[in-house]
Design brief:
8 strands, binds inosine 5'-triphosphate, Maf protein
């Protein structure tokens, strides 16, 4: 069975392809199908937004669609930027602008605990759905470190590894990341679903 990845974020596509490929799940990107759709993320949770994206792309592509809605939740910011992670600081900022703004906002803050959350939603053309969620705990670094990954990775520090996500290889990140955890839960549920 072929799945379309309901995301336009090339970094998510790269990470999702690598993880899902290990489980033999065949995926295509919306670009490869010639589809572009801007789904308004009106949900108040990661899970709601992931389902909105999965259903919209499933309907357009007429294929089962897997969506990822994710973000960084910082304790000292009452869980923010959370579902607004991609829009933190406004439209004009790129990834670096957003994490530099976060570091500035966190200046002088001693409570630095944070976690990434990833909600996966899969929508099938027959109306069936599968959902999964993963979290990765860490802290907000005091300065950016590392060149790998994307988004907030250079400022997301994992104490157990003594490295930021951006200092890990893609494989090392996938082992402990919110996306890796959510996608592994998803593939287990998918296996059960396909046996029915
Ligand atoms: P799609 O909606 O098309 O999937 P998006 O980038 O807009 O792409 P989200 O709305 O889910 O996706 O926003 C997620 C944001 O959270 C993303 O842009 C990053 O800034 C951040 N993020 C999510 N996962 C991350 C990760 O593994 N490492 C670093 N930052 C991450």
């Amino acid at each position: 069975m072929k799945f379309v990845l309901a995301t336009h974020n090339p970094n998510k596509i790269r990470e999702m392809r690598a993880i899902l490929g290990q489980f033999g799940v065949e995926v295509v990107s919306p670009k490869e199908l010639g589809i572009t759709v801007d789904v308004e993320e009106t949900g108040s949770t990661f899970a709601e937004n992931a389902m909105l994206k999965a259903k919209a792309i499933c309907e357009l592509a007429k294929l089962p669609a897997i969506a990822d809605d994710s973000g960084l939740c910082v304790d000292a910011l009452n869980g923010g930027p959370g579902v607004y992670s991609a829009r933190y600081g406004g439209e004009g900022l790129d990834d670096r602008g957003r994490y530099m703004l976060l570091l500035q906002t966190m200046r002088g803050q001693t409570t630095r605990a944070a976690h990434f959350t990833c909600a996966i939603a899969c929508a099938f053309p027959n109306g069936d759905t599968i959902t999964a969620e993963g979290q990765a705990p860490g802290t907000i670094a005091f300065a950016p470190m590392g060149e790998g990954g994307f988004g907030y990775d250079p400022v997301f520090f994992v104490p157990d590894k003594a490295k930021t996500f951006a200092q890990l290889t893609q494989e090392e990140k996938a082992e402990i990341s919110h996306r890796g955890k959510a996608l592994r839960e998803f593939t287990a549920k998918l296996e059960t679903y396909l046996k029915k």
